[in-house]
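BUG: 3D viewer hangs when loading the predicted structure for this chain

Environment: internal workstation, default settings.
Expected: structure renders.
Actual: progress bar stalls at 90%.

Input used:
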Amino acid sequence: MRPLSRLPISTDVGDVSADVRRLFEELLKQRPDRRHQIAGECLPLLDVFETHDALDLLLDLPGVAAASIRVLVKAGVVIIAGEKDRPEPGARGPASYHLVERDFGRFARAVRVHGAIDAARATATLAS
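Structure tokens produced before the viewer hung:
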């Protein structure tokens, strides 16, 4: 896999739900044209595994831009939040969907981390 970009990781303490709302508001500021679109429900697949020296969280986020992802480590919880755009039907004019199985919309995945972690050394990478 080739790393595409590094993602910023925030570390903080306090109310997690308020931070998730803040993450979504921050993403919305990047795309104010999407304010009135109906968001679907997106639940990216997640694997959590531990190696000798790290805890790895691997999410499937095909089609999600790095600018649409936020990572927050707070009070023993790692939160990955973002938004996956609805696919455009094409440049050949209006289209009617017959079947839609791929998720789109906002998402937030949270993993409670047991034991000591060094959030200051944590890294997040988007790879292809």
